[in-house]
Each structure stands twice: as C-alpha cells, then as structure tokens.
Amino acid sequence: MKEANERVQPVLDQLVQGGTEVGLQVAAYLDGRLVVDAWAGMANPAAGRPVTGDTLFKAQSCTKGIVATCIHILADRGMLDYDMPIAHYWPEFATHGKERVTIRHALTHQAGIPQMPEQTTLEMMCDWDTMCTAIADLEPLWEPGTKTGYHALTFGWILGEVLRRVDGRSIARFVQEEICRPLGTEDIYIGTTEAVEPRVATPVTPSPPSNPTPLPPGLLLLRAIPALTNPAAKRHPDVQRALNRASIPSSGGFMTARALARHYAALAQGGELNGVHILTPELIRVASQLQTEAFDEVLGPVSYPAPVRKALGYWVGGQLTPANTYWGSLGLRNTTFGHTGMGGLVAFADPEQRFAFAFLKNFSAPMNAPLPHSAYMVAQAARAALGLTG
C-alpha cells in the first residue's frame, strides 16, 4: 500500500494546494486488500479541523449505490423480484397509473416520477412516512418504462420504502446490519447520529458569481432537485442537523471513502470479502448489466448530452466525453459499475480487475457550474500506481 499511496498522495495535495478542492479522501482495494488510503485538506476550514481517514463525508448520490446493493441483497435472498410491480409490496403506491411500475423501473430511473412532491418542505424531508405518502400519490410524467430520467431524490424513498415493506427494517438499520457489520465497518450511515457528528466534514461551496447564468425555467431538473435542497443554502443549525440525521437514502449517506470502497471491494470479488459473502457472483452480474443508455430526460438538457449508462441502480463506465464528467469519472471500462455524486464524487467496482475505488470530498460547485475532473484524475492516478487500465 505504501508505494501506491506515495503516488496518489501528491495528486490530492496538488488539488488542495491549487485551490481546486478543500478536503478529500480516497480509498482503493485490489484483490480484496486496501491498497490506497489517503486524504488531504480541511474537513472544517473555519475551525481548522483537517481531514483524517476517519472523517465522514456526505456522499451525495454515491449513496444510491448503497441503496442498490441493499435491494440486490433482498433479490438474492428471493425476497423480491425486479419485475414485480412496486405496488405488490407497497399497495398504496398503485395510484395515478403507477400500478405497473416495477422494481426494475425504479432502479433504472424509468418509473416516471423524478419530480419531488409539490409543497415539499425540509421538515417533510425529515419525516419518512410523510415523504413516502406524498411520493405514492405522484402522477407519472411519462408512461413508466418508456423513458429514463434521473430520480435524483425520489429514488431513495421509493426503494427504501420497498425495502422496509419487504424486510421490516429501515434502510439505515439494514445498511448497518447487512453491509457494514459483515464487512467489519460502521462508517456508512444513512443519516448521522449524535455520536458521529463531530467527524462529519463541513460542506464548502463557492460564493455565487455576481452575474450567475440561471438555469432555464421549466427544466425537469429543477423539479427533481428543487432549490430548497441546494447544499449551498444557508440554514439554521438545528434544521441542518435534522436533515443530516434524517433518512434520505438517495443522497443523504455519510461515510468514509475507506468504508465505501470496502463495500465495492466485496462486489469486485464476486460478493465476498475476507470470507464474508454479501451477494452471489450471479446476482452481481445481473445487477451490473447495462439496462439503458437512452437520453436522460432530467440530466440531458443540462449536464449530460451524452447518454447516462444505467444498470440496476448503478451507473456503468464507458466512453468519456468532456461534457460528461460525472459519468466519465467511472472510467472507460464497461465492466466498471458504481455511482457518482453531486460535486464530483464517485465510487465503483470493476470485477474484471478486482478493483474498487471511492473518492469523497466536501467542496461542491453549483449545479450549473463546470466541474473539476478531480475524481477522474485521482482514479487514474490510483490505477496507474497499481498497473491497471481505466
């Protein structure tokens, strides 16, 4: 690990010293061994608190990869079927033409309900039952299964409630008991706790430009990610604490890069790590198979003119284009699957290379601003240090 770290650490230091990033962590596994474990910068610049290997970062939509794994664990145990209607498990979901929306549709963002419920408040987002009731009452914006559009926030409540209906546990508890505990870590939290809050990195956002370029009105993206969810918004500390502690499984996971990479390390090895099995190799092959690379109705008009390649809850690597930094950060290999996160976070597995990687940070540019290629740069540095291609 020392040699690989020595080659990756200068890249992290350069990103921080050059002002591109504030605080960041990276971890990588190869053949089930932690081979890169590095960090740089400040977790809380105002308090002078540096990043350590134990700093917890908000993983944004990288959390969706964890949600996907939870659903696949249930499928692996025969507890749910990808092609069964969601309403079979959650009868209240069968409204406004959603009777035939399947688990597969939800995992591939084809359910037709990327929009957040109207009149959503931050208080509502902290109340699981209220949000699930409101989402069950949504009317699809397209015939389910005919289009794909990023369900940026609704993804987590839809699949998290399916999990609760099938298994009986909350997704936060399920993650701890079915992923973290078997893999020998605690550091993947779907909502913080009082005990771990001192370890959480403070989000850092740039000052808005004096003449910002507004997003065009009417964009579906603005309904999928409404302004009140903007991580740059100034909120009362009590409100922010409640949001951090809430179960928001689409984007509200707090974790270390080390723990996130460890999760993908198991998937990169056929579902097994250090003798512990969380998924079968057959299920991983099914879950990571490309399902759609159609134009994304939510992301396409803004940031993703190239297709977003989607598997069952994960995104899939492939051809890198300058306009598609998030997707490109997964690398060029079609065997890579995982998920990206707002601001340029990424985590993935590549079973063919038995490689897993996670990159987390606390600096987030505005949604319509150009993104630094930090994740791709660091992932490529890790691959090069390990003699891998990507």
Condensed summary:
With 390 residues, this protein is α+β, with helices and mostly antiparallel strands. It contains 14 helices and twelve strands.
Would you write up a description of this structure?
The chain has about 400 residues and is an alpha+beta fold. The chain has a single domain, classed as Beta-lactamase (3-Layer(aba) Sandwich), CATH 3.40.710. The chain is built from 14 helices and twelve strands. The strands form three sheets. It has a seven-stranded antiparallel beta sheet, with helices on both faces. The chain has a three-stranded antiparallel beta sheet with strand order 4-6-5. It starts with a helix and ends with a helix. About 50% of the residues are buried. The mean pLDDT is about 90.
Major sheet strand order: 3-2-1-12-11-10-9
What is the CATH topology assignment? Beta-lactamase
> What Rg is obtained from the alpha carbons, in whole angstroms?
19 Å
How many domain units?
Answer: 1
Low-confidence stretches: none
Q: CA-to-CA gap between the ends?
A: 19 Å
Helix share of residues? 25-40%
Spell the H/E element sequence. HEEEEHHHHHHHEHHEHEEHEHEEEH
Q: Count of helices?
A: 14
- Biggest beta-sheet profile: 7 strands, antiparallel
Q: What portion of the residues fall into strands of 2 or more residues?
A: 5-15%
| CATH homologous superfamily assignment | DD-peptidase/beta-lactamase superfamily
The coarse overall form would be: globular
